């Protein structure tokens, strides 16, 4: 499944190619509570069709109404970008469904060839981070290499935004657990690659939207060169496969590297990687094993949910101890007296 930014860009380009008037809307700044963060994108065509969002829906309704009644060229006078604020007054906040005290500032931009959305989309597909500068006086955009997670900057002359590659997950092993994890990952907007050289496992494993590779895990990792928007998770329980992936993944820029297994197996894995493969302790510190957050998971689906929760937390910059890893959660649970556990359940 495509992530929302690239979906908005692709849809806007398709509409423009069909000869429709198209407006790209960017959340430039917010104050107080806001439904969507700065940098969020939405596109609207002349028929009032939309993709993406900039609020909970009420601002979208207002913009759609204006586009349908006036047209893109009339809303954006002289076909130039327009800066709009919603939620400045209590009445506006109520009218547009903004949280109490929330204000959102939007940049409305008529899409044209000089918007350079095709180049921006291509850069995202090629996993390049881009800084885009929109000249508010002319509507022309310029692109250069940038960081993925920069906050938009808006002044009277320009809007600077940052876009980059879709979050990606490399899953080692085609199994029932992998299937559930991939379904979660797809719904969360990740690009998903499953690697399993074992034909008997791949034969009955398929899921729309997932790329399945028969390469050896180390070959795949070396070919893909995981970047800081990539997670790697080993799920085979087979050291001959899992270790091959982990050796190279731990020495890459992947933001998350994990593997399933018991606490004992996880400790043995760390020792094996350190002693036999010379993986330094500093690299092993970033290995998540047993992978996942502790939710008392039992079934493959629950284990997959636990792992994806940990991956999303790391992707969003949430680090321990804000969440409880499996190894710590099990230790706490198993050491807590049963009477206390029963009381806690009753309290819930």
Automatic annotation (TrEMBL):
Residues 15-69 form the XdhC- CoxI domain. InterPro entries: MoCofactor_Util/Proc, XdhC_CoxI, XdhC_Rossmann_dom. Pfam families: XdhC_C (PF13478), XdhC_CoxI (PF02625). This is Xanthine dehydrogenase accessory factor. PANTHER family: ALDEHYDE OXIDOREDUCTASE MOLYBDENUM COFACTOR ASSEMBLY PROTEIN, MOLYBDENUM COFACTOR INSERTION CHAPERONE PAOD. Residues 169-311 form the XdhC Rossmann domain.
């Amino acid at each position: 499944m495509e992530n929302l930014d690239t979906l908005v860009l692709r849809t806007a380009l398709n509409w423009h190619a069909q000869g429709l008037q198209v407006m790209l809307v960017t959340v430039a700044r917010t104050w107080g509570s806001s439904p969507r963060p700065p940098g969020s994108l939405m596109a609207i065509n002349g028929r009032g069709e939309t993709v993406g969002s900039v609020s909970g829906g009420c601002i979208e309704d207002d913009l759609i109404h204006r586009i349908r009644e006036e047209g893109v060229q009339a809303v954006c006078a002289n076909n130039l970008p327009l800066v709009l604020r919603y939620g400045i007054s209590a009445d506006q906040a109520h009218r547009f469904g903004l949280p109490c005290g929330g204000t959102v500032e939007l940049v409305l931009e008529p899409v044209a060839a000089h918007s350079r959305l095709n180049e921006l989309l291509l850069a995202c597909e090629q996993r390049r981070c881009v800084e885009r500068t929109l000249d508010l006086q002319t509507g022309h955009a310029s692109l250069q290499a940038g960081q993925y997670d920069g906050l938009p900057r808006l002044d009277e002359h320009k809007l600077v935004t940052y876009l980059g590659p879709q979050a990606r997950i490399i899953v080692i092993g085609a199994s029932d657990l992998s299937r559930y994890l991939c379904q979660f990952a797809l719904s969360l907007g990740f690009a998903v690659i499953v690697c399993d050289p074992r034909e008997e496992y791949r034969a009955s494993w398929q899921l729309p939207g997932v790329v399945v590779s028969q390469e050896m895990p180390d070959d795949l990792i070396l070919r893909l060169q995981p970047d800081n928007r990539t997670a790697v998770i080993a799920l085979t329980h087979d050291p001959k496969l899992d270790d091959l992936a982990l050796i190279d993944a731990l020495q890459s820029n992947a933001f998350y590297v994990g593997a399933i297994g018991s606490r004992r197996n996880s400790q043995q894995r760390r020792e094996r990687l350190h002693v036999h493969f010379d993986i330094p302790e500093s690299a092993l510190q970033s290995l998540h094993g047993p992978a996942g957050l502790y939710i008392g998971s039992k079934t493959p689906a629950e284990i997959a949910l636990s792992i994806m929760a940990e991956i999303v937390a790391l992707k969003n910059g949430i680090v321990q101890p804000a969440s409880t890893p499996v190894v710590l959660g099990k230790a706490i649970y198993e050491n807590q007296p049963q009477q206390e556990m029963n009381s806690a359940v009753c309290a819930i």
